[in-house]
Amino acid sequence: VQLQASGGGLVQPGGSLKLSCAVSGSIFGMTSMAWYRQAPGKQRELVAVITTGDSTNYASSVKGRFTISRDKAKNTVYLQMNSLKPEDTAVYYCNLRTVTGPYWGQGTQVTVSS
User: What is the predicted pLDDT for the residue at 95?
Assistant: First the structure.
């Protein structure tokens, strides 16, 4: 199983970015997909999660600004990020959760700065 994240970059405060994570390979027992982020000097934190039933949950810091979604046919999960703030700057990782364990993508850098 491989996860390929893309879509990061440099954006001004108040701007938007959309991250994508394409999953390839044989997937067994998927339960959910999620986005995490890790800022310099900080622990990795959960940003958003979407279950196979399309239930979603968000960190309080991003609720109302970020939206997680997925395209089942493309095996791709997205993170639409609006009203970005400098404190959103981090490496964003996609995560696939299965009954046999988690899988991680390589991370994509998001920098919010003027």
Answer: 96
